[in-house]
Amino acid sequence: MKIVIDTYAWIELLIGSERGAKVKEILSEADEVYTSDIVLAETARKFYREGTDEETISRWIETITDASVVTPIDPVIALEAAKCQSELIKDAKSLKQNTPSLFDAIVYATAKVKDCKMLTGDEHFRNLPDVLWIGK
Questions:
Q1: Distance (Å, whole) CA 23 – CA 25
Q2: pLDDT number for residue 64
Q3: Is residue 12 over pLDDT 90?
Q4: How far apart are alpha carbons 3 and 34 in whole angstroms?
Q5: In this predicted structure, what is the pLDDT of residue 126?
Q6: Which of 99, 136, 134 is closest to 120 using CA atoms?
Q7: Helix, strand, or coil here: 74?
Q8: How far is 81 from 73, CA to CA, in rounded Å?
Q9: How are the residues of the chain apportioned to helix, strand and coil, as percentages rounded to the nearest 5?
Q10: Are 44 and 93 in contact (CB under 8 A)?
Q11: Displacement of CA 17 from its chain's centroid (Å)
Q12: What is the pLDDT of residue 37?
């Protein structure tokens, strides 16, 4: 199985939560693991805002880069992200959810372009095809 892991899933793994244990299990069974480069920045931002020291953040980012292939945003992913963003916003409005971020759309687009399943617990993706959902 090929997977793209989003920020939500990486954070759960890094903090050692119960959902993180599920991420670890899925990682061990995956044939190919990808992470969009934007996830590195989003993960660092989250922990930095919470006051985590830079050394720990750097170590956690290294964990991500060691465990997956970091995939840059290229022209194909950029265009797919634009399409995904429109779809995600439309779905969120109909479900009365918060507006999904462009980060979300980029990660989902990466999964679509790479023909992977997306591993997440983000509510925006709960019922979408090719999503492995680990949320509450």
A1: 5
A2: 98
A3: yes
A4: 6
A5: 87
A6: 134
A7: coil
A8: 9
A9: 60, 15, 25
A10: no
A11: 16
A12: 97
What is the total count of domains within the chain? 1
Q: Which two tokens stand for residue 70?
A: 């970091």
Query: How many other β-carbons are positioned within 10 Å of the β-carbon of residue 134?
Result: 22
Q: Output the domain CATH number for residue 122.
A: 3.40.50.1010
Rounded mean pLDDT of 38-49?
98
**b/e sequence 123-132, b meaning 16+ C-beta within 10 Å:** bbbeebeebb
Those residues with Cβ within 8 angstroms of residue 65's Cβ, 6 or more apart along the chain or in another chain:
35, 40
Range of the domain at 58: 2-133
pLDDT tens digit sequence for 90-108: 988 888 888 889 999 999 9
Distance CA 44, CA 8 (A): 12
Tell me how far apart the alpha carbons of residues 72 and 27 are, in angstroms, rounded to a whole number: 20
**What is the three-class DSSP state of 53?**
coil
pLDDT of residue 97: 87
